[in-house]
Write a structure and sequence with these properties.
Layout (H helix, E strand, L loop, with lengths): L4 E3 L2 E4 L3 H12 L4 E5 L13 E3 L3 H10 L4 H8 E7 L9 E6 L1 H14 L3 E5 L2 E7 L27 E7 L3 E4 L2 E4 L8 E4 L2 E4 L10 H8 L5 E7 L2 E3 L9 E3 L22 E5 L2 H9 L5 H4 L13 H7 L7 E6 L6 E5 L7 H8 L10 E3 L2 E7 L17 E3 L9 H19 L13 H12 L23 H12 L4 H23 L1 E2 L2 E2 H5 L6 H7 L8 H12 L1 H18 L17 H10 L4 H5 L6 H11 L7
Parallel strand pairs: 1-10, 2-3, 2-11, 3-7, 11-22
Antiparallel strand pairs: 4-6, 5-6, 8-9, 9-10, 12-13, 12-21, 14-21, 15-19, 15-20, 16-17, 17-18, 18-19, 23-24
């Protein structure tokens, strides 16, 4: 018998970027929530690079903030350098990024967790999942995206999560559990020939959760990720590197941050060379990825230095960024040289890199192999298709990156709380948010390598700019209880300002043209409009930027909205959870297999399943309307 039993509404397992956002979201919505972590001192820890944002990722952080999440506020409070990437490109490509004071960021996230009402932080090692094999229920109206806490039709063969067991034989009971286990499931670290159990330097691994997932029929696979060495900045010759400063006028991530007044620290750039490449090639037989020691897939878009040398053999150099890890440490992260090569090769490699010839390694690079659960086993709400009330978020879903993890955590935590209230889940569409693109890609297409977000993944990226995340998502967040009235009122004030500026621009004319017509010309700047209409000078930078984008790109936005409407019509064609694809005459075998596995909730999602053709969708549509021939 368990020594102690604790009762909660929602349990979140793991307190990284996914777990903290999941727990905060559930608690904000009124659920009594417990956040369970193996070490309270590592809540919100930056296991790899000391930075937030980037191309595609910065947009996600703005969306997390618009939904009431913590990541944007935390980086604004602890950032040491802020930059807007892709400024020379159009607004859809503008992506904020910031270097963080690594320890301060972690402490700030932990503070936000500790101060959140309805949320209890507990140091526990979860060893098993508790599942009631006969208490799972589903609504039978064709909507397979949420669990009904007051079920109408029981399904005795469908299991439901009821809690977890922790080390020491204590039990935490809850009707919803969110797993955010990162890289810790049966994790194995590699540095050359050396192998060490653990999911992060200095920390152990977990096997019990993997066994529990497999026991209830959830499929697991293995991925690999890695991290670079860290150097002592005192031993770096910065005179032999290139300076990379922050922006003169840094822009905050959070809508709640008025301005950033912070002394920014510089980063530096250096490069590998042929001598480095020759050394790595000569030691590839000792690299776990090439010796056969590691067989798991790694991230294509954040490859190890070994992969870069092999895959881009024609390149004579690769760019490296020297990023400080904080204001009160000399530790430097070497972005671009992730590696699992042996220690002696890592030591020798830096001897050839300009500025790093005498650099001392403080922490050696390593690779981590870990279990993940392929995300095609999830519904769009991030709830498991196998176990009612069990949600997954972060690297357990096959993603890589703090931002992707945090976004999933927020959605999973919110949906855990919504499910307990009997409300429909929060499922963002591809035209609503990058978060919608991220989750749809995961649950519809699955992954065969760690997933990373890019702007190119979003077909409606002109609608999903980093500057309008609050306008897109905060009203929805307020309606659901994810954010408070103060943020919503702040947004309303901004929207009123945008409306005022837009009206001025559309009604003020000069030489037969409205100011809006003038602004659509690529060469026309806001300052020219102010000279004609002085009232435009009295406006905030955020409102001005919004108006400029809306007007300059109105034609492109209109075309994207036509395609969005077409997808909405497809999304209106719901597919019952019991729909039998095997009965559709002439449907290809591949289509039957994939659609039966993914179980799309509507025709729009079905059209995005990998390998599904327009002809397949037409057959399914005809059959849904009762006009198709059956087997």
């Amino acid at each position: 018998m368990a020594s102690s039993i604790y009762e909660f509404d929602v349990l979140v397992v793991g307190a990284g970027h996914a777990g903290t956002e999941a727990a905060l979201a559930a608690a904000r919505m009124g659920a009594k929530t417990a956040l369970l972590t193996t070490n309270c001192d590592t809540v919100g820890q930056m296991s790899c690079n000391p930075a937030i944002g980037g191309v595609g990722k910065g947009q996600i952080v703005r969306e997390i903030d618009a939904l009431g999440g913590a990541m944007g506020r935390a980086i604004d409070a602890t950032g040491i350098q802020f930059r807007m990437l892709n400024r020379r490109k159009g607004p859809a490509m503008h992506s904020p990024r910031a270097q963080a004071d690594k320890k301060l960021y972690q402490a700030e996230v932990k503070r936000l967790v500790e101060e959140q009402p309805n949320l209890s932080l507990r140091q526990e090692v979860v060893e098993d999942l508790l599942v009631d094999e006969g208490s799972g229920f589903r609504v039978q109206d064709g909507d397979q995206s949420f669990v009904n806490p007051e079920p109408r039709t029981p399904n005795p063969s469908f299991p439901r999560i009821v809690g977890v067991r922790v080390r020491g034989d204590a039990v935490y009971r809850a009707r919803a559990v969110v797993l955010t286990t990162g890289t810790f499931l049966q994790a194995l670290m590699h540095t050359g020939e050396a192998k060490t159990p653990g999911g992060r330097g200095g920390e152990g691994t977990s096997a019990g959760i993997s066994a529990a997932l497999q026991r209830v029929g959830i499929r697991l696979d293995r991925f690999k990720t890695g991290t670079p060495p860290r150097l002592n900045g005192r031993t770096i010759d910065y005179n032999r590197t290139e300076l990379q400063p922050g922006d003169d006028q840094p822009q905050p991530f959070s809508f709640l941050t008025d301005r950033l007044e912070v002394e920014q620290l510089p980063c530096y750039i250096t490069y590998t060379n042929q001598a480095v490449h020759d050394l790595i090639r000569a030691n590839l037989h000792r690299a776990p990825m090439y010796s056969g020691q590691i067989t798991s897939s790694g991230p294509r878009y954040c490859p190890s230095i070994e992969d870069k040398i092999v895959r881009f053999a024609d390149k004579t150099q690769h760019q490296l960024f020297l990023e400080p890890e904080g204001r009160n440490t000399r530790e430097v992260y070497v972005n671009g040289v992730s590696t699992s090569l042996p220690r002696d090769v890592q030591d020798a490699m830096f001897r050839f890199i300009p500025g790093l010839e005498r650099a001392e390694i403080m922490r050696y690079g390593y690779a981590v192999e870990y279990d993940y659960a392929p995300p095609d086993q999830l519904q769009p709400s991030l709830e498991s298709k196998h176990v009612a009330g069990l949600f997954f978020a972060g690297q357990i879903n096959g993603t890589t990156g703090y931002e992707e993890a945090a976004a999933q955590g927020l959605i999973a935590g919110a949906n855990a709380a919504l499910a307990l209230k009997g409300r429909e889940p929060l499922v963002l569409t591809r035209d609503q948010a990058y978060i919608g693109v991220l989750i749809d890609d995961l649950v519809t297409r699955g992954v065969d390598e760690p997933y990373r977000m890019f702007t190119s993944r979003a077909e409606y990226r002109l609608l999903l700019r980093q500057d309008n995340a609050d306008r897109r998502l905060t009203p929805l967040a307020y309606e659901l209880g994810l954010t408070d009235a103060a943020r919503f009122d702040r947004l309303q004030a901004k929207l009123a300002e945008v409306a005022r500026l837009t009206a001025l621009i559309e009604t003020t004319r000069r030489d037969g043209l409205s100011l809006a017509q003038r602004l659509r010309r690529p060469e026309v700047e806001w300052s020219e409009l102010v000279q004609i209409q002085p009232e435009l000078a009295d406006a905030s930078a955020g409102a001005i930027n919004q108006v400029i984008c809306d007007i300059k790109y109105s034609g492109y936005i209109a075309r994207q909205e036509v395609e969005v409407e077409r997808q909405h019509r497809l999304a209106a064609k719901r597919i019952p959870s019991s729909f039998d694809y095997g009965r559709i005459l002439h449907l290809r075998a591949e289509a039957r297999e994939k659609l039966s596995r993914v179980r799309p909730v509507d025709l729009s999602q079905a059209s995005r399943v990998s390998g599904i053709t327009p002809a397949d969708i037409a057959l399914v549509m005809v059959h849904l309307e009762g006009k198709g021939a059956s087997r």
